[in-house]
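Researcher: Here's a chain I'd like modeled. Treat it as a single chain, no partners, no ligands.
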Amino acid sequence: MTPMSSSARPLLNHRLAGFGTTIFAEMSALAQSTGAINLGQGFPDTDGPEEVREAAVRALRDGRGNQYPPGPGVPELRTAVAAHQRRRYGLAHDPDTEVLVTAGATEAIAASLLALLEPGDEVVALEPYYDSYAACIAMAGGTRVPVTLRPHTADGVNTFRLDLDELRAAVTDRTRLLLLNSPHNPTGTVLTREELAAIAELAVARDLLVVTDEVYEHLVFDAAEHIPLASFPGMRERTVTIGSAGKTFSFTGWKVGWITAAPALVTAVRSAKQYLTYVASGPFQYAVAEALRLPETYFTDFRTDMLAKRDLLAGGLERAGFTVFRPAGTYFVTTDIRPLGESDGFAFCRALPERCGVVAIPNAVFYDHREQGAPFVRFAFCKRTSVLEEAASRLGTLAA
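Model: Modeled as a single isolated chain. Structure tokens:
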């Protein structure tokens, strides 16, 4: 029997009424029940570097982080994050006032939006977007304003592109914040220097705050380049940059993320964050501090390995008959199912485990404009090579 109040008011806060069980839970359960290969949820099927795992074990044994760590994060990790930003991007941050450790990037997003938004504020976000964006904007009482990345083909290359004029037109007097994600999940788009410069000019001209989700910063391919928006003129004082260890070091269960920003922004986000988890992942923070100091060869080899896996899966998908959007970043491949005679991504993904033993995610869940995402399906390639080879073989039966 479902408990109800005397007024029969719904139990769930109305801001979250449209958010049920995530598609990831549904599709992962389907993978388990059918024995299908799960290329839906974006987590690796092998652990990251052994020396990083051993650093966590060492911290546990030495009693570092077993009790509450400092609210902003352990000094070692905050120092390592600041050094990483300076070494890679020339961005100088004070580890004591401009770095905040969070329970993964998801909490960083939630804390940033809860801290920086008032009810009624508009948030412009690139569509399709990671599903927690919509939920966090709703919890903060904000209003989502999607700007859609649209499919584009040139010289035989399929990509998703941002229309800068559409972005400019989406900003109104009620716009408080731009929520950006580059490298972009799920499309794999990496915003160019020219696009980022135009976004920076818009943010300065309209006096907007910007939250940038850059968790895939180390996964850019081919000629793509990751450039933090905070490095552009006028953006240092208005940008919250989000990073994470999970995607870079393949320890997604550790939930270690961070923000870097000007002191006033960090103070604001910390005010919200302290009432969410307060602190988390104590021993793992020490391990991630060591991970961020790994030699450049680690990051190069990681990227090279993922590039080979991208091409392995993308090639298999092309042979199976999909139109494939080879990503410039992240570890997801978006496909168009219309060449297979399909147009409903939800129906296609729910039938795929029985048809050929593979699980994927319908991109429509990442859209406000569901019809825009209906024919697109996302596959993750952050899996062992042998798993991807088997998945490509199974998907090949669709071509028959």
